Input
Amino acid sequence: MNENIAMNDEEYSDYVEQKAKKSPIAKNIFWAFLVGGLICMIGQLIADICMFFSISKEDSSTISTIILIFLGAFLTAINVYSRLGKVAGAGSTVPITGFSNSIVAPAIEFKMEGYILGLGSNMFKVAGPVLVYGITSSVIIGFIYWLIKLFM
Amino acid sequence: MDIFLEYLKVFITGGLICTVGQILIDKTKLTPARILVLFVTLGAIFTAIGIYEPLVQFGNAGAKVPISGFGYSLAKGVMKEVDEIGFIGIFTGGVKATSAGIAAAVVFGYLASLFAKPTIK
Output
């Protein structure tokens, strides 16, 4: 007991850091699983509500995506999503809401540098690579699929 | 009870995909940006070779909401379009299937950034 009390601030923060680093991975995984799963359930709920109003399955899924993207952008703008991210890690990065967070967060940060090269171009700091690799993959897949169909 | 099971499947599928991302962040030096790129690409490839569709059938939004679902839509869209219109579909299919998401991300992203106040760190 006495040993703990005798620590100065610096020693104490070292001590806390040591303790905190003990099992971060299990904790991180727990939160990533929980938050990621919950965001997906919200997506499913929105789609199910749309289908309840007799919107087609495909359109319901599209509407759900649009609303999630809106929520991700909105929650980033009011500084809630980054706070969630500190706890949830990949649970908030991997869902589509994390994609819109990756658009808004750098855009806000570089807003000071102007609306074209500050806000406009930094929106795509992470989303740009995602689109580059995603769309390129789809064209390559399409080409291979077209070739296979040609010879079969 | 049925609906409970459906949502449990969504939760587990989505949770597990995010868990894979978290393990990659913790165990490797991959940044979240690289995780996003990796997941989109893998989602597209897994869809093309036919192993992502069963995951969507099982987990529904649990497989569609993670960014790998974006790759799923890209790959599914391009193959559907090649089936329907042939060669040109290689270029139109992927973006066409994901156009709503891309437009929403650009517009909502822009508006949110426009109205948000820069945070002082």
Q: What stands out?
A: Chain B has a mean pLDDT of 95. The helical segments of chain B are 2-27, 32-48, 53-59, 61-64, 68-85, 89-115. Chain B touches chain A through 79 residues (CB under 8 Å).
